[in-house]
Hints:
Elements: E1 3-8, H1 16-31, E2 35-40, H2 46-57, H3 63-87, E3 92-95, E4 102-104, E5 113-116, H4 119-126, E6 130-134, E7 137-140, E8 146-148, H5 154-164, E9 169-174, E10 195-197, H6 198-206, H7 214-223, E11 227-231, E12 239-242, H8 244-256, E13 273-277, E14 280-289, H9 294-304, E15 312-314, E16 323-331, H10 335-343, H11 346-349, E17 353-357, E18 360-366, H12 376-386, E19 393-397, E20 400-406, H13 410-420
Helix pairs in contact: 1-3, 2-3, 5-7, 6-7, 12-13
The chain binds aspartic acid and magnesium ion.
Amino acid sequence: MGIVVQKYGGSSVSDAASIKRVAQRIVATKKAGHDVVVVVSAMGDTTDELLDLAHDVSPLPDGRELDMLLTAGERISMALLAMAIGNLGQQAQSFTGSQAGVITDSAHGRAKIIDVTPGRITRAIGDGAVAIVAGFQGVSQDSKDITTLGRGGSDTTAVALAAALEADVCEIYTDVDGIFTADPRIVPAARQIPVISYEETLEMAANGAKILHLRCVEYARRNDMPIHVRSSFSSKEGTWVVSAERMSDMLSATLTNEGDGEAPVMEQAIISGVAHDRSEAKITVVGVPDKVGEAARIFETLADAQINLDMIVQNVSAAATGLTDISFTLPRADGQTAMTSLARLKDEVGYAQLQYDDGVGKISLVGAGMRTNPGISAKFFKAIADAGVNIEMISTSEIRISVVVNEQQIDDAVSAAHRAFDLDAGEVEAVVYGGSGR
Length: 438
Ligand code: ASP
Ligand code: MG
């Protein structure tokens, strides 16, 4: 049998007892005949604690040193996990990201993987050992310094290794049973999605669903590596994230089983799920003169400040005034920087005023079936209106519709949309096993 890469998140290895439990699971996979490579996150909230410590000693810690510090979290869990596996009579060896051949650029805190050369991992599994790799870290090709991939980066490590090792599957173990049609903490009737495409998962992840790191899904799509997101707290089948082609193969395989009472029949859903995001803010530039080049000037300034924008809306200018309003959303964390940069443009552009609102949230309906089914937007907006929620902005992609609403009304709007598209499960409630869901 082939290679299986398993990734365990922080909530799955939060203490000695959890580490022992995970070790048993790994040994069982190995005994079933697979070569097993494990990627592990730091225990529980270790990364947050290390970050707090860093800020206690320095308001602006140096990037190189911060990466040195944070990668220690994964070193602890990887070594403990290797010991726990050894204690079960199974050989195991732990490796740092650098030892595992995870080569990155040199952007501390948000490094990108540029190559994976897993020679030592191949040797370890060839010798019959389980290889344990520290997630979220690598080594810079140029400076040879240790780097980190950004918060939640262990998912990306796992998929990158799985691709380099040509594994059969990359299993991502977390504290929920899989990817849900909405956050079960908001919609208790949310259902687990059996199989979903990379494209839909990317839209969900980019729009606030916290289940998988965006970059990990991009990496999986590029390499066509199937991801199986599942709970380390149960043995249930989780959610498969695969290509659209593989997805229709999986769906038609279950259809031919219809009637024999074995595999559940899955249908291609028009809507996969409803994601929400509370991390954005909205800025409106009021009274912008409606002439060539003003939008370019405003957005160049924001680009120069390294701010990533999400939605942008420009109103038709009122004929009488020749002025228009431009609104956009951006990460709240960048709100201050954006306002300061725009304030400097006031005389040059000659706008009337700037408005900043961080009491907003975004709700996104995602589904590949939107391409071929009319009336989805109308139904979505109607559901939101019936819940008494006002829509402030709208944006769409081919397979997504997003709206910005008052933050206080996110939960109501998510529930309403979920119900309107018949995503509510009815009987089985989603189980959240604990942890922060990170
Ligand atoms: N430990 C890191 C974090 O908490 C990486 C990860 O968990 O994937 O962000
Ligand atoms: Mg973590």
